[in-house]
Design brief:
heterodimer, A: mainly alpha, elongated, B: alpha/beta, 10 strands, membrane (chain A), Phospholipid/cholesterol/gamma-HCH transport system permease protein (chain A), Permease_MalE (chain A), transmembrane (chain A), phospholipid transporter activity (chain A)
């Protein structure tokens, strides 16, 4: 995203947060988007998180070759890695692909078929009507999905570890309950909030300024996912640096 | 009445509109005609604020539009209805939801009142009973008529129509043209139609503004257009053999 694009992105956000024309219509749109972004992504996030947790446990166990390190450490490492990094970041990147491309192509198609012009002519603030519900749904549902991901990732580690015999159930449970720092949850939720904003606003920007036809809409959709992923990783570093 | 004064608009080095002026009166069908690339759609978009002219003014009944802020423009836009070239119906909504959309946004009417209005508008465009259909289930002509129904839902003072006959067969084109003319006269709207369809020009052109290479070349009525000696206008209007033959009979 170069400086011109960044400037246009900021101006678009300014328009997005103008006062809504009619709150009841916006509320309906917000709940619809919450269903799409949140409820519609539960299955995918659940599968990915469970498997990542299970694989993480096996890999940590594989790397613990010294008998001096207690096996309870497997649970602790899995817990902290899941909460601080894997659940927020992997969830965000997966959602950038699933939700980001859908948002970009939906708004882009509306742009090239003059539906956005139609909204403007009716006197509706089109950035607000189209983007605000998505952003609000993103910043509320992504943190909830991240919490779900944390739980399932740690649970997946338990299943993977006990099924393979890499760690006993008692050792794993002792590991995840020892020296737990609740602040890591705060850091993860701040990340999730930021990622939720990026996942919805960046693709919306890419779609909103599409010019051309079907090919350009597809290109914007690809660009939206790429830019979202890079922005997520950059913000991940910045938030971690600031909060830890 | 809508009055445009000395409108200039460029895209980069390409100067599309070069000082266009004109007056569009209510109750008559005003046409902006011209060849491809003559600037007619750009002029229409400057008038409704989708493009910002570098110079010149657009006045809606004496209210200067181009210098208005966002909120003031919204108030004018609530008085505008527009039919887009591709109809621009919201494809995730049914016909009923499309027409009801501006009513939901800007009125506090009860659902029954809104539904009555939707049914009235659908009846007006001869599409009664098509409430539950989605745009993808409609033919090109039906989409245009739903677009018109949505445009008139809020009783607009100003009606803009962009290429109403593109992609339609001649018979459906005449139906759409007559519908536009009827609505204009019935509700005394200031109607502006951008077209290059000669049937529309001859059929409903009460006032015609002819653009050529971004300039206003001629203005007049459909009765006068056959008798001009402006080469560019004659080349445009009487390009086909049929129209040439018809001209000889005028």
């Amino acid at each position: 995203m170069n400086f011109t694009n960044f400037g246009r992105y900021i101006l678009l956000l300014k328009a997005v947060f103008r006062k809504p024309e009619k709150l009841s219509i916006y509320m309906k749109a917000i709940f619809k988007q919450m269903d799409f972004i949140g409820v519609g992504s539960i299955g995918l996030i659940a599968i990915i998180s469970t498997f990542i947790g299970a694989v993480m446990t096996l890999q940590i166990a594989f790397q613990l070759v010294s008998d001096f390190i207690p096996k309870t450490i497997i649970g602790s490492v899995n817990r902290d890695s899941s909460i601080l990094e894997l659940s927020p970041t992997i969830t965000a990147i997966v959602l950038a692909g699933k939700i980001g491309s859908a948002i970009s192509s939906e708004i882009g198609t509306m742009r090239v078929s003059e539906q956005i012009d139609a909204l403007e002519i009716m006197g509706i603030n089109s950035p607000g009507y189209l983007i605000l519900p998505k952003v609000l749904a993103g910043i509320t549902m992504v943190p909830l999905l991240v919490i779900l991901s944390m739980v399932l990732s740690i649970g997946g580690g338990y299943i993977g570890g006990t099924l393979s015999g890499a760690v006993s159930a008692a050792e794993y449970v002792q590991g995840i309950t020892t020296d737990f720092n609740p602040y890591t949850i705060v850091v993860a939720l701040v990340k999730a909030f930021v990622f939720g904003f990026i996942i919805t606003s960046v693709p919306a920007y890419e779609g909103f300024y599409v010019k051309g036809g079907a090919l350009e809409v597809a290109q914007a959709s690809t660009r939206a996912v790429v830019v979202s992923c890079i922005t997520i990783l950059a913000c991940d570093y910045i938030v971690t640096q600031l909060l830890l | 009445m809508i009055e445009i004064k000395d409108i200039y608009k460029s895209f980069g080095d390409n100067e599309v509109l070069k000082g266009i002026s004109g007056q569009f009166k209510p109750g008559v069908t005003n046409l902006i005609i011209g060849g491809s690339g003559s600037g007619k759609t750009t002029l229409l978009k400057c008038m409704i604020g989708l493009h910002h002219p570098e110079k010149g003014s657009v006045e809606y009944d004496g209210r200067e539009f181009t210098t208005m802020n966002f909120e003031e423009k919204i108030e004018i836009r609530k008085e505008i209805g527009m039919l887009f070239q591709g109809s621009a119906l919201f494809d995730s909504m049914t016909v009923e939801e499309n027409i009801m959309f501006p009513l939901n946004m800007f009125t506090d009417q009860k659902r029954k009142e809104k539904l009555d209005r939707v049914n009235f508008c659908l009846e007006r465009v001869n599409l009664s009973g098509k409430n539950a259909l989605f745009p993808a289930e409609l033919s090109g002509g039906m989409k245009k008529r739903v677009g018109i129904a949505r445009a008139i839902a809020m009783n607009p003072k100003y009606l803009f129509v962009d290429e109403p006959n593109s992609g339609l067969d001649p018979k459906t084109s005449i139906v759409i043209d007559e519908l536009i003319k009827e609505l204009t006269e019935e509700y005394n709207t200031t109607t502006i139609v951008v077209t290059h369809d000669m049937n529309s020009v001859m059929g409903i052109g009460d006032y015609i503004l002819f653009l050529h290479e971004g300039k206003k070349f001629w203005e007049g009525s459909n009765k006068e257009i056959a008798h001009t000696d402006i080469q560019e206008l004659n080349d445009f209007v009487f390009a086909s053999r049929f129209m040439k033959a018809a001209k000889d009979k005028f």
